[in-house]
Design a protein that fits this description.
There is one protein chain. The chain is of the alpha+beta class. It contains eleven helices and eleven strands. The strands form two sheets. Strands 1, 2, 3, 4, 5, 6 and 7 form a seven-stranded mixed β-sheet that branches. Strands 9-10-8-11 form a four-stranded antiparallel β-sheet.
Length: 381
């Protein structure tokens, strides 16, 4: 990426280069912004950014993948750029850092990567974390780990306008090769869980679709969860977020909740339980049980949280029809993107033969298959 920086903006001073990975969430979907539990892993796909300081307050940013450059000043309020929305993730991180008291200088930045866009593998968080890491390298500020992840989340929540939880930024920073990362999204207590898969594989299938509902419906789900918490808390004051509630408490509040809000709450409550059980199953090496929990997670996301779509459901059904596939589920925000699948090595050829061909025949879309492993985050433990 150094070459891209020089090609875009000419020669200059010393260059810092940082890499931040995307992620796949193995289980624990839409629990992070409910103060719940998640179990993601960092991916080998990543965003790489090169940066250097320059005199004056001007920041210049080049996106290799979009073939575009933008500029803005850090001595004036940093504002979103609707004409170049990709740049808002970079602008947002600089805005959040300045809000935290970091004194920003002019700089040149260039980035590119191979995290599939629109796939639910968190290319946005990877870009945010890569930006934060390069700026930290250039400015030498002392914000580390969880606090830096929170600032990247703030950039996406309050600057970009996507009300995501902390998971994506956290695992992009703190993941470790060959491990999943169990994260309590309230306390940010975290634990590395070895992924001792033996002859099993993790396969990601990109559906090739991304429905436009994802942004608005994501934020709507947050509002529906908030409505559920408000009703639960009136009767049960200890319920500060859905991770605190039980199915019994939800049933006792049923008359105060719409059927839709009840379903949203039921998903989050049961999904938190599935994450905790998944952590224990992986520690025991019980991959069959973990696979069943993945399947239950997808069914809940499809029926109760209603963030799946026909194309994703087809991929899941096709995967489950292959002998040796332990589990298959949607991953990411929903309404398209990817599935994540756990399968025995002996099932790989059958999986590759059946799933892409049948999916393409029924949808007219050729899916992309990625066999992956857990990778290091930008700032691993």
């Amino acid at each position: 990426m150094r070459d891209v920086l020089v090609q875009s903006f000419g020669d200059g001073g010393p260059v810092k280069v940082r890499r931040a990975p995307g992620r796949v969430n193995l289980i624990g979907e839409h629990t992070d912004y409910n103060d719940g539990f998640v179990l993601p892993m960092a991916l080998e796909f990543a965003i790489e950014m090169a940066g250097r300081l320059r005199p004056g307050p001007l920041v210049r940013v080049h996106s290799r993948d979009y073939g575009e450059s933008v500029s803005f000043r850090v001595d004036r309020p940093i504002e979103p750029d609707p004409a170049h929305p990709w740049s808002n993730y970079v602008r947002g991180v600089l805005w959040a850092l300045s809000q935290a008291g970091v004194r920003l200088e002019g700089m040149d930045l260039a980035f590119g990567g191979d995290v599939p866009k629109g796939a639910g593998l968190s290319s946005s968080a990877a870009l945010e974390v890569a930006t934060a890491e390069v700026v930290r390298g250039l400015n030498g500020f002392a914000i580390k780990g969880p606090d830096l992840a929170r600032l990247c989340q703030k950039a996406e929540n309050d600057f970009v306008g996507m009300k995501c939880g902390i998971m994506d930024q956290f695992v992009s920073l703190m993941g470790r090769a060959d491990h999943a990362l169990f994260l309590d999204c309230r306390s940010l207590e975290h634990e590395l869980i070895p992924l001792e898969l033996g002859d099993h594989l993790i396969a990601i299938v990109h559906s090739g679709v991304r429905h436009e509902l994802v942004g608005s419906e994501y934020n709507r789900r947050r509002e529906e969860c908030g409505a559920g918490v408000a009703a639960l808390r009136r009767r049960f004051p200890a319920v500060l977020a859905l991770r605190d509630a039980t199915l019994r408490e939800l049933a006792l509040c049923a008359e105060e909740l719409s059927p839709t809000v009840q379903k949203r709450c039921r998903h989050v409550i049961t999904e938190c339980g599935r994450v905790l059980e998944s952590k224990q199953a992986l520690r025991r090496g019980d991959l069959a049980r973990f696979g069943r929990l993945m399947n239950a997670s997808h069914d809940s996301l499809r029926d109760d949280y209603e963030v799946s779509c026909p194309e994703i459901d087809l991929l899941v059904d096709l995967a489950r029809a292959v002998p040796g596939v332990e589990g298959a589920r949607i991953t990411g925000g929903g309404f398209g993107g990817c599935t994540v699948n756990l399968l025995a090595g002996s099932a790989l050829e059958g999986f590759k033969d059946l799933v892409p061909a049948r999916y393409a025949k029924e949808t007219g879309i050729t899916p992309r298959l990625f066999l992956t492993r857990a990778a290091d985050g930008a700032a691993p433990f």
